[in-house]
């Protein structure tokens, strides 16, 4: 999918774009070297209970469709999501180090993507900010739409600045 986005931007002759991605869209953003999600499909990144549910769903689909080939568009969408979470991505820390664009890494403190994993993404991108939204799960942009929109809008409008002294106040 990230290759498709890159090809579209290339065909449109867009050499620079603001990118916002949620969940798998965030992974595509990382692959485009812009924004964040998870780096690998394992329990260091995704909560173990979510991985267990995904594995059961994957097994069910394989049993139902034998090929496995979903029968309806909804089945296809669910199966694609299950496979994405179970099998991808595989992004190394070295690849994150190459990201030069200012990046806002967002997660919820009750996200299916573990906060420590989100922190690892932030720590490995040179020009990154981190926002872990308290009392939020994987749908921060929906559950806290106003705060999310304000935070992202400010990020896109404000040039990146490195805060060298952690005690510095705004």
What does this 3D model show about the protein?
- This protein is mainly α and about 170 residues long.
- It folds into 2 domains: about 110 residues, Rossmann fold (3-Layer(aba) Sandwich); about 40 residues, no CATH class.
- It is about 50% helix and about 5% strand.
- It has 8 helices and 2 strands, in the order αααααβαβαα.
- A two-stranded parallel ribbon has the order 1-2.
- Helix 6 links the parallel strand 1 and strand 2.
- Helix 3 crosses helix 4.
- The longest helix is centred in the N-terminal third of the chain and has 18 residues.
- The radius of gyration is 17 Å and the shape is globular.
- The mean pLDDT is about 80.
Question: Summed up, what is this model?
Answer:
The chain is mainly alpha-helical. The protein has helices at 2-11, 24-31, 48-65, 73-87, 93-97, 115-123, 140-143, 145-157, and strands at 103-108, 128-133.
Would you spell out the secondary-structure blueprint of this structure?
Layout: H1 2-11, H2 24-31, H3 48-65, H4 73-87, H5 93-97, E1 103-108, H6 115-123, E2 128-133, H7 140-143, H8 145-157
Parallel strand pairs: 1-2
Helix pairs in contact: 3-4
Helix content: 40-55%
Q: Which CATH C-level class of the largest domain is it? A: Alpha Beta
Quick one: biggest sheet? 2 strands, parallel
Order of helices and strands: HHHHHEHEHH
Number of DSSP helical runs = 8
Tag the structure with descriptive keywords.
mainly alpha, Rossmann fold, 2 domains, 8 helices, 2 strands
């Amino acid at each position: 999918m990230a290759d498709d986005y890159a090809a579209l931007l290339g065909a449109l002759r867009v050499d620079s774009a603001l990118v916002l991605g949620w969940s798998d869209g965030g992974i595509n953003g990382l692959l485009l070297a812009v924004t964040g999600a998870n780096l690998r499909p394992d329990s260091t990144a995704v909560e173990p209970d979510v991985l267990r549910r995904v594995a059961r769903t994957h097994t069910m689909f394989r049993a139902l469709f034998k090929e496995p080939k979903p029968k309806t568009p909804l089945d296809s969408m669910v199966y694609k999501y299950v496979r994405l979470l179970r099998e991808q991505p595989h992004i190394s820390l070295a690849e994150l180090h190459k990201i030069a664009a200012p990046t806002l890494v967002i997660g919820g403190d009750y996200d299916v993507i573990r906060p420590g994993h989100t922190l690892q993404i932030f720590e490995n991108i040179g020009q990154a900010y981190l926002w872990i939204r308290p009392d939020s799960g994987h749908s921060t942009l929906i559950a806290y739409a106003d705060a999310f929109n304000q935070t992202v809008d400010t990020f896109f409008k404000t040039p990146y600045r490195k805060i060298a002294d952690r005690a510095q106040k705004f």
